[in-house]
Design a protein that fits this description.
Strands 4-5-3-2-1-9 form a six-stranded mixed beta sheet. A five-stranded mixed barrel has the order 10-11-12-15-14. A three-stranded antiparallel beta sheet has the order 6-7-8, covered by helices on one side. Helix 12 runs antiparallel to helix 13, helix 13 runs antiparallel to helix 14 and helix 16 packs antiparallel against helix 17. The protein has 529 residues and is of the alpha+beta class. Helix content is 47%, strand content 16%. A hairpin with a 2-residue loop joins strand 6 and strand 7. It is built from 18 helices and 15 strands. The chain has three domains: 218 residues, Neutral Protease, domain 2 (Orthogonal Bundle); 115 residues, Tetratricopeptide repeat domain (Serine Threonine Protein Phosphatase 5, Tetratricopeptide repeat, Alpha Horseshoe), CATH 1.25.40.10; 97 residues.
Length: 529
């Protein structure tokens, strides 16, 4: 059946026609052809919608935009408004046109089927979706009596397409398969493999199913089978509504435009303006439409806003692999690699064919490689940051020691020559004497000083106290209370740190070790001979 019927002369539609509308679900039939013709056309569309829903496992099929079928009374009236393809975009609806004096074109039925699949089902292999279109283009409807599966005209389908149709025809019409076709198609919608779908639905491997199909094709007995239609009464269930002349004139003008021009305030007219305010209005005009969200994402300058809009678009149209692909790229740019990988998987599932699926899979592998590199870079950055923090702590501690040394040195300098309250160097009969060279002075934050004395020989001892062991570390808790005597001057100073020229020193301490500070005893008196 050729979709557009060509005739020799083209005549305009007479202005005297009366137009009425019938609607059910997403379908609106506008006709001047008469009551029966309008109701019959709508019945065909509704039964197609009902049977398809049962086959693909959906309770109710809807569409993003309503579908307006303009049904003319004859070919002469129809031809001036014939569309370049069966379905075209209108400002607020999807448009179709046909004539009441011919059976509904199979190309038109195919497009209705595909639109219902697009707006309701998960992605299935291309050959399966095409076969469903071809299968439902053969639907026969008489009120509640519906049949499906009559063979197409000789030569209409050839090669792989003819074979795919034969497979779906067998699964839909043969009793051993028909009750389980829904399971098979549902598995394919979940990105299942052919073998898994065949096993789950028919308890057959894909190879065995192919063998059954070969035998069925060789037999060549393709006959339609009755389907369970919707229980409806066209005369009761479809309410007739008269259409005012301005409304039908606007509808016919849209048909004339053929999808090239839309009313400015319609959803598609607002989309065409492509501004943030117009896109917001388009979203409000049709909340089920994904495209305005996608356009908003493309206008967004903030990456977070872009990702949010793209998520809204993919939620509304999960079959659109372009939305998923761009969302994955944006998420990867934002460093959200786990989310990006999920989006690439969804894009792969939504791919319309194996070639596109392979390309997307390669992009997914490249993302995984980028994610691995990013993880390595992050671990390297964390190690470097940890090393910097440790070095900062070391530097701070060293700065604190240096500050304490400077403070102690300044205090010693202030006390030079001050002997008030000093303890005379008469020795302490109860102390332990240490003789050696002063090799290091640690000035502590508390103001105390830690002296490291390295003996030059065996330590000497007083008559009553045993000598201390070599290499002593002694503590001066309060330098102000210790007399430091020198042979060169009345009072000597301590310089904090390692002593570049270790001086000879004599000291007595109390022998009370301080394990926390690592000292052998507290200094009682000090003398530089």
């Amino acid at each position: 059946m050729i979709f557009r019927i060509l005739i020799a002369a083209v005549f305009a539609l007479p202005a005297c026609a009366d137009w009425v509308e019938y609607r059910s679900g997403p379908f609106h039939v506008f006709t001047e052809a008469g009551d029966k013709e309008g109701r019959d056309a709508l019945t065909t569309l509704e039964q197609l919608r009902h049977v398809l829903a049962a086959q693909i496992g959906k309770p109710e099929l809807t569409t993003v935009f309503p579908i307006h079928l303009v049904l003319f009374r004859n070919q002469k009236a129809y031809l001036p408004y014939a569309l370049p393809k069966p379905l075209m975009d209108g400002g607020s609806a999807t448009l179709a046109a046909w004539t009441a004096d011919l059976p509904m074109a199979r190309d038109l039925l195919r497009e209705f089927t595909q639109r219902l699949i697009d707006d309701n089902a998960g992605r299935m292999p291309d050959e399966i979706e095409t076969a469903l279109q071809d299968l439902f283009s053969t639907i026969q409807v008489n009120a509640t009596r519906v049949s499906l599966g009559s063979p197409p005209a000789e030569g209409e389908l050839t090669g792989d397409r003819q074979r795919a149709w034969a497979k779906l025809q067998m699964l839909a019409t043969q009793p051993e398969f028909s009750g389980k076709l829904r399971i098979y198609l549902n598995n394919l919608q979940q990105a299942g493999e052919e073998d898994t779908a065949a096993r789950n639905a028919f308890n057959l491997t894909a190879a065995k199913l192919a063998e059954r199909l070969e035998a069925y094709v060789r037999a060549g007995k393709f006959e339609s089978a009755p389907m369970v239609g919707r229980a409806l009464n066209p005369n009761r269930d479809f309410i007739e509504k008269e259409i005012p002349k301005p409304a039908i004139d606007a509808l016919l003008a849209e048909l004339k435009a053929g999808g090239k021009d839309f009313p400015p305030e319609s959803p598609r007219g607002l989309l065409a303006k492509n501004t943030v305010p117009s896109l917001e209005l388009a979203i409000k005009a049709n909340p089920k439409w994904a495209e305005p969200h996608f356009k908003m994402a493309m206008l967004a300058t903030d990456l977070g806003t872009k990702i949010g809009r793209l998520k809204a678009a993919t939620n509304l149209d999960p079959r659109n692999q372009q939305y998923w692909r761009i969302l994955a790229e944006a998420q990867a740019e934002a460093g959200l690699f786990a989310d990006a990988e999920k989006s690439w998987t969804a894009a792969e599932r939504a791919a319309p064919n194996s070639t596109e699926r392979a390309r997307i899979h390669q992009s997914k592998l490249e993302l995984q490689e980028r994610r691995g590199e990013a993880d390595l870079a992050e671990r390297r950055r964390a190690r470097e940051e940890e090393a910097r923090e440790l070095q900062n702590l070391k530097d701070a501690a060293l700065a604190e020691v240096r500050a304490a040394e400077r403070g102690a040195n300044e205090r010693l300098a202030e006390n030079a020559g001050n002997t008030k309250g000093a303890v005379p160097w008469y020795g302490d009969p109860s102390g332990i004497q240490v003789v050696g060279r002063l090799t290091r002075v640690d000035c502590l934050a508390s103001g105390a000083m830690r002296l490291t004395i390295t003996p030059e020989g065996p330590p000497s001892r007083t008559k009553r106290v045993p000598a201390s062991p070599p290499g002593q570390v002694l503590l001066i808790r309060d330098p102000k209370q210790i007399t430091v005597s020198s042979a060169e001057s009345e009072q000597a100073e301590f310089a904090c740190g390692i002593q570049r020229a270790p001086r000879k020193i004599e000291a007595q301490h109390n022998g009370k070790a301080d394990p926390k500070l690592g000292t052998t005893g507290d200094v009682l008196v000090v003398k530089f001979p």
